[in-house]
Design brief:
Layout lengths: L3 H11 L9 E10 L4 E9 L12 E5 L8 H4 L3 H10 L7 E5 L16 H16 L9 E6 L1 H12 L6 E5 L6 H11 L1 H8 L4 H5 L2 H7 L9 E5 L7 H11 L4 H12 L4 E3 L3 E4 L9 H15 L6
Parallel strand pairs: 3-4, 3-5, 5-6, 6-7, 7-9
Antiparallel strand pairs: 1-2, 2-4, 8-9
C-alpha cells in the first residue's frame, strides 16, 4: 500500500535516530464489550517514561482503515518509531496512543442496532482506557485520527461528539456525497453498506459527514483543530475537497486557492484551527498525525497558543 514516495519520506524522517529511550507497544490486547457481545481487540503505545512516572498522559485514538485491524499502524505505519523520535525531539508531547480494532463497522452504529460500534467506543472503550491506563480525561487532552475508513470515523466522531476532542486528523478520509454512496450501496459495496446503513436513506444521512457539516451553523463550527490530508492521486480526493468546502463555504476565494495549492503539493495553513497538507497517494503514514498533535494538542497542553 505504501508508495515509494512515502517510504522515502519515512526513511528520511527516521535517519540517525539512535540515543533516545524506548517506548512500549502492546499488540492485540482486548476487553469485553457488553454492547457488541464480543471482545474488542486493541493495541496501545505507552511512552518511554510511563513505568517510571506517576503522571497522566494525553491520548490519541488512532483508527485503522477498511480491511485493516488494530495492528496495522504498528506493522505498516511505523508509528512506534516515528512517535518515539518525535517525543524525544520534543516535536510532540509524551502521549498514549490507542489503536482499536473496528473490523468493517465503519465506526458507526449499525442501522438495525446489531453492532453499535460508536456507542461502544464512547461508552465502553474510552472509559476502559481511562480506567486501565493513566490517561487524562479532559477534552483538551484527547485527539482522534485515522486513515480512509478510519479517517471517516475520526471525522464523524469529531462531529457527533465535539465535546470529546480537541484535535482531529482525517487522513484520506472515506467521505462520500450522496451520489457516491448510492453507487457503492448499489454496486461496489452493496452487501456491506446495506448491512451498515440500511436500505433507506435516513441512517446514512445521520452519518453523512458532508450532510452534518452542511447543516451545521457556520458561525458555531466545532471548536476542534482539524488536520486534513488527502493526496492528488487518491480516489478519495474529491470527497475531501467537498468537506473542505463545507467547512469554509463562506470563503470562496480561499476554496479555489487551496485547491490549486493542494495540487501543487504545498502546505496550507487554513484559518486558526485547520491545516490542509498534501502527499501524493493513499497510504499508512504517521508523520502527519505527529505534527497535527504537535500543532494542536501539544500547544494546548503546555498552555501556549502557537499555530
Amino acid at each position: 500500500m505504501k508508495s515509494k514516495f512515502y517510504l522515502y519520506l519515512i526513511l528520511c524522517f527516521l535517519f540517525n535516530m539512535a540515543g533516545y529511550s524506548q517506548s512500549t507497544v502492546f499488540e492485540s490486547l482486548s476487553f469485553e464489550s457488553n454492547k457488541l457481545g464480543r471482545k474488542v481487540s486493541y493495541s496501545i503505545y505507552l511512552p518511554s517514561d510511563y513505568n517510571t512516572s506517576k503522571r497522566n498522559y494525553p491520548v490519541l485514538y488512532l483508527l485503522h482503515g477498511y480491511t485493516d485491524n488494530e495492528t496495522n499502524w504498528i506493522q505498516m505505519g511505523q508509528m512506534k518509531t516515528i512517535a518515539d523520535r518525535a517525543i524525544a525531539n520534543e516535536e510532540a508531547v509524551p502521549m498514549i496512543i490507542v489503536m482499536p480494532d473496528a473490523w468493517d463497522t465503519w465506526y458507526i452504529n449499525q442501522y438495525d442496532g446489531k453492532a453499535p460500534y460508536e456507542d461502544m467506543f464512547f461508552e465502553e472503550l474510552i472509559p476502559y482506557m481511562e480506567k486501565t491506563y493513566r490517561i487524562r480525561s479532559n477534552k483538551e487532552s484527547r485527539a482522534v485520527a485515522g486513515l480512509s475508513m478510519g479517517g471517516y470515523g475520526s471525522f464523524l466522531y469529531s462531529l457527533h461528539h465535539p465535546e470529546m476532542f480537541c484535535a482531529c486528523a482525517p487522513l484520506s478520509a472515506a467521505v462520500f456525497d450522496d451520489t457516491v454512496m448510492e453507487a457503492r450501496k448499489n454496486r461496489s459495496h452493496k452487501d456491506l453498506f446495506n448491512r451498515l446503513f440500511g436500505p433507506e436513506d435516513e441512517h446514512w444521512q445521520q452519518n453523512n459527514v458532508m450532510k452534518i457539516l452542511s447543516d451545521w451553523d457556520q458561525n458555531d463550527l466545532p471548536k476542534i483543530r482539524y488536520y486534513i490530508d488527502c493526496g492528488d492521486d487518491d480516489g478519495l480526493l474529491d470527497g475531501n475537497m467537498q468537506v473542505q468546502k463545507e467547512l469554509y463555504s463562506d470563503t470562496k476565494e480561499f476554496v479555489v486557492d487551496s485547491a490549486r495549492l493542494l495540487r501543487q503539493g504545498k502546505l496550507i495553513d487554513v484559518r486558526r484551527h485547520t491545516r490542509f497538507v498534501h502527499f501524493p497517494k493513499h497510504s499508512h503514514n504517521y508523520v502527519e498525525i505527529v505534527y497535527m498533535y504537535q500543532g494542536s494538542t501539544t500547544n494546548i497542553l503546555d498552555g501556549k497558543e502557537r499555530v
